[in-house]
C-alpha cells in the first residue's frame, strides 16, 4: 500500500507543480501582452505626432515656395514692364527723330520746288532767246549759202555731190587700211593665243626666290667644344673633313664652326653630324664615321620622302624610288639662286597647264618637266653634262622614250621630238626667266624698269612716272599748266616711240599719260 500512496503523492506533487508553472506562464504572457500593447500605443502616438509635425513642416515649406514663386513672378512682371517702358521710350525717340527728319525733308522739298520754278522761268527765257537766235542763224546760213553758190559757181546739190565723191574716196582708202590691219591681226592670232596660254599658266604658278650660299654655320654652346672637335693633333677634324668632304673653319668665328663647300648636300650632312656629336658628347674618329654614315642614311630617306611628296602633289604616283631620291636631293641644289627642286615642280605645273590648254598629253609633259634637271643631283659625282647623265639615268630606271626625249630637248640640244618637248622647253624658260627667279635676271629686270621710268622722266612737262605690272605698263603724270590735252596725246606717242627704239622687252608696253587740273582753296 505504501508504494501506491507514494506514487499518488508524487503524481499529486507533479500536477500541483505543473499547475503552478502554467499559472506563472499565463501571468507572464498577460504581462508581456500588456507591455506590447502599451509600446504599440506609444509608437502609434509618436507616429501621429511625427506625421503632424511633418505635415506642418511641409505646409510651411509649400507656403514659403509659393511666396518665393509669387515674388519671382512680381519681379519678372516688373522687369518686363521696365523693358516695355524702355522700348516705348526708344520708340518715342525714334519717332521724334523721324518726325524731325520728315520736317527737314519737307523744308528741303519746298526749297527744291522753288529752285525748280526759278529754273523753269530761266529755261523759258533761254528757250525764247534760243528761238530768236536760231531764226537769225538760219537767215544768216541762207545768205551765206547763196553767197557761196555765187562765188563757187556751183549749186548746193552739185557741191553736195562733189563732197560725197571726195568722202567716198577717203572711205575706200580707210577701208583698205582697215582690211590690211585686220589681216595682220589675223596672222598674229596664233601668237596672241600662245601668249594667253603662257600668261594663264604663269598666273597659276609662282615660286619663291632663294639665295645660293657656299657656307653653313654650326653654333657651339661653349668654346671648350672646339678643342674636342679638333681632337688630339687634329685627328677629329680630319676625320670629319674626310667623312663629309667639307672644309671646317674653326678659329675665325668665336662660338661657331663654319662649314665651307660648294655641295649643299654635303654641307647639310656635315652640319647635322656635328650637331649630333655635340649633343652626344662622344667625339672620336670611330664615332664620327658612325654618326656621318647614319646621317647620310637618314638624309637619303628624307630626300626620298621629299621627292615623293612633290611628285604626289603633281599627280605622279609611279616614279621609281631612286628617281624620287635624286629629285629630293635637288632640294639641296641651287642654280643662280633658284632652288632646283622648286624650279622642277614649277616647270611641271606650267607644262601641265599649257599642255592641257592646247590638248596635248599633259601626263608626259608634267613627267618630263619634273625630271628635266635630275642630272644636276649627281653631275658633281659623275663625268658628263647634267643632261646626258639625266637621260642615261631615266632610261636605266624604265622611263618611257616619250618622257626621256621630251626631257632631252629642254635645252634645245636636239631637234624637237614632240610637241610635249616644246611645252617642256617653254615652261623651263618661263620659270627661269620670270622676274625674281634668278639673281642675274632680277638685276636686269630692275635695270629695265629704272630705264623705262628714266625715259619717261626725260621728257619736258613730266612730273612723275611709275612702271606697273612688271614693266608692261607705265603711267606718266604731267604738269597740267605746261602740257595741254592735245600735247598729252602726242607725248604718249613720243614716249612709246622712244621706248621702242631704246629698250628690249617681251610683248608690249602700255604708255598712259595722265593730265589733271586741281583747284585748291582754303576756308578760313
Can you tag this structure with a few keywords?
three-stranded mixed beta sheet; Alpha-Beta Plaits; 524 residues; 70% helix; flat; mainly alpha
Explain how this protein is built.
A three-stranded antiparallel sheet has the order 1-3-2, with helices on one face. Among the domains are: 1-149; 440-514, 2-Layer Sandwich (Alpha-Beta Plaits), CATH 3.30.70.1350. It is mainly α and 524 residues long. It contains 15 helices and eight strands. The N and C termini lie far apart (165 Å). Helix 7 (285-313) crosses helix 8 (321-329). 70% of the residues lie in helices and 7% in strands. It has helices spanning 2-152, 156-187, 189-203, 224-230, 235-244, 264-280, 285-313, 321-329, 340-358, 362-370, 386-396, 401-408, 419-433, 439-457, 485-502, and strands at 215-219, 247-249, 256-260, 334-335, 338-339, 462-468, 473-478, 510-514. It is flat, with a radius of gyration of 53 Å. Strand 7 (473-478), helix 15 and strand 8 form a beta-alpha-beta unit.
**Low-confidence region ranges:** 207-212
Count of helical stretches? 15
Strand content: 5-15%
N- and C-termini, Cα separation: 165 Å
- String of helices and strands: HHHEHHEEHHHEEHHHHHHEEHE
Radius of gyration, Cα only, in angstroms? 53 Å
Query: Overall mean pLDDT score?
Result: 79
By DSSP, the count of extended strands is: 8
The proportion of residues forming helix, as a percent range, comes to: over 70%
